[in-house]
Design the sequence.
């Protein structure tokens, strides 16, 4: 990882009261970092199902991807939220093959997080993403927004 990265976990999965859009809140494991990422309903459902350890009757898309990765002899080492450009987050799934060679896959953060939960691999956020996100949130003046009240978000998931 070229830029310093912070290890995070899924701290909460909540609904934005203004837009009724799901938000995955990533929280630093060894620090106070908080990063909200707005995600789609299907991705939020995939994340919630894995957090709650609900086994679907048939494999869902993220389960299928996990199975393809494993059957291909690859191992997931981490997921990294790499960039925040024009209010869009970017991520990559870091894998290694049987010879120890790295394999990087570009992904949406929501898909990468859903996969990381299924493969029990670490999740990281680049420090630059946290810096850009913090700067963007500092510019907001609406105290009722989820970003402004990050410390007051409910602890839905531990």
Sequence:
């Amino acid at each position: 990882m070229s830029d310093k990265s912070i290890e995070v976990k899924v701290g909460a999965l909540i609904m934005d009261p203004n837009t009724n859009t799901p938000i995955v809140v990533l929280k630093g494991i060894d620090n106070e970092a908080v990063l909200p990422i707005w995600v789609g309903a299907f991705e939020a459902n995939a994340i919630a199902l894995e957090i709650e350890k609900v086994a679907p009757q048939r494999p869902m898309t993220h389960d299928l991807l996990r199975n393809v990765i494993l059957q291909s002899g690859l191992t997931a080492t981490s997921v990294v939220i790499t960039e925040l450009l024009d209010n869009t987050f970017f991520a990559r799934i870091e894998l290694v093959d049987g010879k120890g060679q790295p394999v990087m896959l570009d992904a949406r953060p929501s898909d990468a997080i859903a996969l990381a939960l299924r493969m029990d691999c670490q999740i990281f956020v680049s420090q630059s993403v946290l810096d850009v996100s913090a700067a963007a949130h500092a510019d907001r003046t609406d105290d009722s927004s989820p970003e402004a009240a990050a410390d007051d978000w409910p602890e839905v998931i531990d």
Q: What stands out?
A: Residues 41 and 102 are 31 Å apart (CA to CA). Confidence is low (pLDDT under 50) at residues 144-158.
